[in-house]
């Protein structure tokens, strides 16, 4: 529905009216078409339109003639009234604005006259007020000047305050006047002079210094200074005319609040310094009262140093009490009430802190003998806190810091002793190890005596075929060397089991399990001389024979004879040398290389006391008659190893700690004062000292431990020695010392684990180094090329030299059992790597087989590292499980397929896996029916005998 348009609104005009249409036609008509006819047509059209419009107008008027006449009359009336109104307005304008008789000009003149009179009146009143106020200010300024010149400081201060209020209340016109600014400058100068006089009087009334305290209840004022030609000079008033004294309370009240606050803060600082000065050293105090000729009284407290060490620390508390009493009687009552309480209370904290930090803490004893005297001092400190801080200074709060500290004095004493002990332990731990002061600790071992044959000079011959020996478990070897308590696994058990497994129980009786006894407390042996590093045992085959003194590296440690002659240990029959394969020498001799040596039988021998003998292959059978036996007797053997001297100091410190804690408990001194159990804090220092050792030594000696192969082993020895000695200490704990048992037992295990881990890490690091050296061999491939062969040979020689360099260093510090374990581990790592690389080769030519065999034989020189007696075979197989396998590998590389088949049938290759033998045969020999049949034989498995 459309919105209806209201009737009173005008209608929309036709946008296309006549004029617009004609103008549009004119604009659209081109110039050439324009002519008189066209123009006359446009004019005629306009005339027609005008005539039509007139006609419509007349018709409209005629149709509404009454309305038209009414509107016309109304228009004429409006015109008449407009003319009359205009005339009246012109007359009114003349009566109001006429310059001579008009209303507005007359009114403005009257108002201007009135304003002028009012302004004159206001100016007169303001001038009167300003002059009156200025007169008042001048009078006050003159009065202030007189007071200042007469040194009446209290009244001058009040006059300054009054004049300041006048300046603040000055009328507005006077504030910006020059005379007021001049008066303000003069007032400021007089106020500064007054403040200067007050401060001077204050400095003479209250004097605090290292020499003592001086309090003057009243002082004589001095002449003020005046500014003359840019310099301050004394007033021209004769000094005889000045006889003004000012009392100390009035003096303090006259000082401005800001200046008084600063002065009291300085006084508080000086009093605190004096209190600290008295508590730090012995002092003598003299209290005197002096009155001069003018009648001025002076209270003086003199401080003089006493001879050092000539007085008891409790006298310092008495001196402090005397000082605070003096101040409470002669100084504090003079303070204004608003500042008195706050100032006195502000001294409580510095005094309490000074007593604690300068008297109690520095005198905290470092030994139990001095503790009773210190407890008396603490009781006196509690009494001094009550008398000084509570009674004199009025600090009645619940914070009794000194009493609280004294209630826990036992804990404070023990904490300080623990800190001192740990500092001493740290000094011991971080001290660089000195090889000249190191000593050799003995490891007692109890083993069963072995049966002795009837004919000791006759060798025991055992026939059989050679076969690999499996190594004894590492746990058994380690426990035989170190675990002396509560352990039942011994090398003898492993040895007995090995012999029984291979059929030697008919010849050698099965020994009883050895009985382990507790390690006796080691005595302090003489410090051992530093072992010679350059091949002390003469193990290097290519080196010159070692000197006589080099043979004694372990004489005092491994082969040390007890004071009393011990029964001789029966020698264990050496294991039989394996028999060479039948016909192998002939077959090897018939090969193209006549220089190739015959297959050497790897030697077997009984190892040192710790390791178990190698189990023998099944083909070995005993053919000798049984040995004559004698009853088994326990024989105590000892091994020794190098220990740093600092371990002895550290363990002695630990025992001293335990003894001190027990002595503190038995003394009963702290039972009445300590809230906790006496001795518990000190005894904690024992395991903490060991924790410092475990934490600091690897850090402070990190560079040395990384560079030297011997240092990690020495640190391992230190840890294991500490674990062993600590176990003895723990076993002897009793009474109050038992509180440390759990921590010390935990430390025993941690030290043992730490020692073993460093031992194993040192071995692992050497194994990684050897592995890196063998990486240069690149798997021993292409050895037919002379350059590659030289690289492989250099790598193996480097491994050999590295082992020879490491061996004497380890030998100088380790026990025999641990030394051979460590040496055997790195030799085993080298052999296993070479075995793996060689057996991984898929094709080995005849030239390569000869060269690989030559490379393998380089490491045969390591067998000399496992020989102690040149007349006895080496015991390398006891520690290097791959030795026989490695030894056979060098021969198999040059052996014929018949030799390999024969050795396999005789059970001499049991160390090799079947797939390894198969792969080796395929790599060495071309594909022939003989190789195929040999491989089939190998794949059937090792022969069972």
From TrEMBL:
<feature type="compositionally biased region" description="Pro residues">
    <location>
        <begin position="564"/>
        <end position="577"/>
    </location>
</feature>
<feature type="compositionally biased region" description="Pro residues">
    <location>
        <begin position="597"/>
        <end position="618"/>
    </location>
</feature>
<feature type="domain" description="ZW10 C-terminal helical">
    <location>
        <begin position="795"/>
        <end position="938"/>
    </location>
</feature>
<dbReference type="GO" id="GO:0007094">
    <property type="term" value="P:mitotic spindle assembly checkpoint signaling"/>
</dbReference>
<dbReference type="GO" id="GO:0006888">
    <property type="term" value="P:endoplasmic reticulum to Golgi vesicle-mediated transport"/>
</dbReference>
<dbReference type="InterPro" id="IPR046362">
    <property type="entry name" value="Zw10/DSL1_C_sf"/>
</dbReference>
<protein>
    <recommendedName>
        <fullName>ZW10 C-terminal helical domain-containing protein</fullName>
    </recommendedName>
</protein>
<feature type="compositionally biased region" description="Acidic residues">
    <location>
        <begin position="475"/>
        <end position="489"/>
    </location>
</feature>
<feature type="compositionally biased region" description="Acidic residues">
    <location>
        <begin position="502"/>
        <end position="511"/>
    </location>
</feature>
<dbReference type="GO" id="GO:1990423">
    <property type="term" value="C:RZZ complex"/>
</dbReference>
<dbReference type="GO" id="GO:0005737">
    <property type="term" value="C:cytoplasm"/>
</dbReference>
<feature type="compositionally biased region" description="Acidic residues">
    <location>
        <begin position="521"/>
        <end position="536"/>
    </location>
</feature>
<feature type="region of interest" description="Disordered">
    <location>
        <begin position="450"/>
        <end position="628"/>
    </location>
</feature>
<dbReference type="InterPro" id="IPR055148">
    <property type="entry name" value="ZW10_C_2"/>
</dbReference>
<dbReference type="Pfam" id="PF22766">
    <property type="entry name" value="ZW10_C2"/>
</dbReference>
């Amino acid at each position: 529905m459309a919105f209806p348009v209201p009737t009173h609104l005008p209608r929309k005009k036709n946008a296309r009216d006549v004029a617009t249409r004609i103008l549009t036609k004119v604009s659209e008509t081109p110039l050439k078409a324009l002519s008189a006819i066209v123009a006359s047509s446009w004019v005629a059209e306009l005339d027609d339109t005008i005539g039509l419009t007139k006609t419509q107008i007349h018709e409209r008027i005629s149709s509404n003639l009454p309305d038209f006449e009414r509107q016309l009359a109304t228009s004429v009336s409006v015109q008449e009234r407009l003319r009359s109104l205009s005339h009246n307005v012109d007359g009114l304008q003349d009566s109001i604005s006429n310059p001579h008789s008009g209303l507005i000009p007359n009114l403005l003149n009257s108002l201007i006259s009135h304003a002028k009179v009012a302004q004159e009146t206001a100016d007169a009143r303001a001038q009167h007020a300003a002059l009156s106020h200025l007169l008042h200010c001048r009078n006050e300024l003159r009065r202030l000047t007189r007071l200042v010149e007469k040194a009446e400081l209290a009244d001058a201060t009040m006059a300054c305050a009054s004049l300041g209020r006048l300046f603040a209340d000055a009328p507005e016109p006077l504030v910006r006047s020059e005379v007021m600014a001049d008066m303000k400058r003069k007032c400021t100068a007089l106020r500064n002079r007054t403040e200067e006089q007050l401060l001077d009087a204050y400095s003479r009334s209250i004097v605090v210094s290292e020499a003592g305290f001086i309090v003057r209840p009243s002082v004589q004022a001095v002449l003020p200074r005046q500014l003359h030609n840019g310099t301050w000079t004394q007033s021209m008033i004769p000094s005889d005319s000045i006889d003004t004294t000012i009392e100390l309370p009035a003096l303090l009240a006259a000082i401005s609040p800001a200046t008084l606050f600063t002065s009291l803060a300085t006084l508080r600082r000086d009093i605190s310094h004096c209190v600290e000065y008295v508590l730090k050293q012995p002092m003598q105090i003299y209290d005197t009262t002096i009155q001069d000729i003018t009648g001025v009284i002076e209270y003086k407290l003199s401080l003089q140093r006493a001879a050092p060490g000539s007085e008891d620390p409790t006298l310092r508390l008495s001196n402090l009490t005397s000082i605070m009493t003096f101040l409470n009687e002669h100084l504090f009552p003079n303070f204004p009430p608003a500042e008195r309480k706050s100032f006195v209370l502000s001294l409580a904290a510095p005094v309490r802190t000074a007593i604690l930090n300068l008297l109690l803490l520095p005198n905290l004893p470092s030994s139990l003998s001095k503790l009773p005297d210190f407890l008396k001092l603490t009781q006196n400190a509690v009494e001094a806190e009550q008398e000084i801080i509570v009674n004199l200074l009025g600090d009645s709060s619940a914070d009794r810091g000194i009493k609280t500290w004294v209630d826990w004095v036992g804990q404070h004493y023990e904490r300080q002793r623990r800190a001192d002990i740990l500092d001493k332990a740290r000094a011991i731990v971080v001290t660089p190890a000195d090889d000249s002061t190191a000593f050799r600790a003995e490891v007692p071992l109890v083993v069963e005596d072995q049966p002795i044959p009837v004919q000791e000079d006759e060798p025991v011959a055992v026939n059989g075929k050679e076969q690999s020996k499996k190594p004894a478990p590492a746990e058994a070897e380690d426990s035989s060397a170190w675990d002396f308590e509560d352990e039942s696994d011994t090398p003898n058990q492993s040895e007995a089991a090995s012999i029984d497994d291979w059929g030697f129980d008919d010849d050698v009786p099965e020994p009883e399990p050895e009985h382990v006894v507790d390690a006796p407390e080691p005595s302090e042996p003489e410090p051992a001389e530093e072992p010679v590093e350059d091949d002390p045992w003469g193990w290097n085959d290519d080196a010159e024979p070692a000197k006589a003194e080099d043979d004694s590296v372990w004489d005092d440690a491994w082969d040390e004879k007890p004071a009393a002659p011990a029964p001789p240990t029966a020698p264990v029959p050496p294991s039989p040398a394996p028999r060479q394969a039948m016909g192998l020498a002939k077959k090897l001799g018939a090969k193209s290389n006549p220089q190739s040596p015959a297959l050497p039988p790897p030697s077997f021998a009984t190892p040192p006391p710790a390791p178990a003998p190698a189990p023998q292959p099944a083909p070995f059978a005993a053919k000798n008659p049984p040995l004559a036996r004698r009853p088994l007797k326990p024989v105590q053997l000892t091994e020794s190893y190098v220990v740093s001297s600092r371990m002895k100091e550290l363990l002695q410190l630990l025992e001293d700690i335990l003894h001190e804690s027990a002595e503190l408990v038995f003394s009963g001194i702290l039972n009445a004062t300590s809230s906790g159990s006496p001795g518990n804090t000190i005894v904690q220092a024992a395991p903490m000292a060991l924790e410092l050792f475990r934490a600091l030594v690897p850090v402070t000696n990190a560079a040395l431990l990384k560079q030297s192969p011997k240092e990690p082993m020495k640190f391992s020895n230190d840890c294991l020695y500490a674990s062993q000695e600590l176990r003895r200490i723990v076993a002897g704990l009793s009474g109050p010392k038992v509180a440390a048992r759990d921590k010390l037992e935990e430390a025993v295990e941690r030290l043992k684990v730490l020692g073993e881990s460093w031992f194993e890490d040192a071995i692992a690091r050497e194994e990684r180094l050897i592995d890196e050296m063998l990486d240069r061999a690149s798997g021993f491939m292409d050895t037919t090329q002379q350059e590659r062969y030289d690289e492989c040979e250099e790598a193996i020689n480097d491994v050999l030299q590295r082992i020879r360099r490491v061996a004497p260093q380890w030998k100088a510090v380790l026990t025999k059992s641990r030394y051979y374990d460590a040496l055997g581990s790195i030799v085993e790592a080298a052999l296993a790597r070479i075995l793996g690389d060689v057996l991984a080769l898929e094709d080995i030519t005849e030239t390569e087989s000869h060269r690989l065999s030559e490379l393998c034989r380089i490491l045969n020189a390591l067998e000399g590292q496992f020989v102690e007696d040149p007349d006895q075979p080496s015991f390398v197989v006891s520690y290097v499980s791959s030795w026989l396998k490695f030894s056979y590998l060098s021969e198999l590389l040059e052996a014929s397929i018949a030799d390999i088949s024969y050795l396999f049938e005789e059970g001499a290759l049991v160390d090799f896996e079947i797939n390894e033998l198969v792969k080796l045969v395929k790599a060495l020999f071309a594909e022939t029916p003989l190789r195929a049949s040999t491989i089939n034989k190998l794949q059937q498995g090792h022969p069972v005998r």
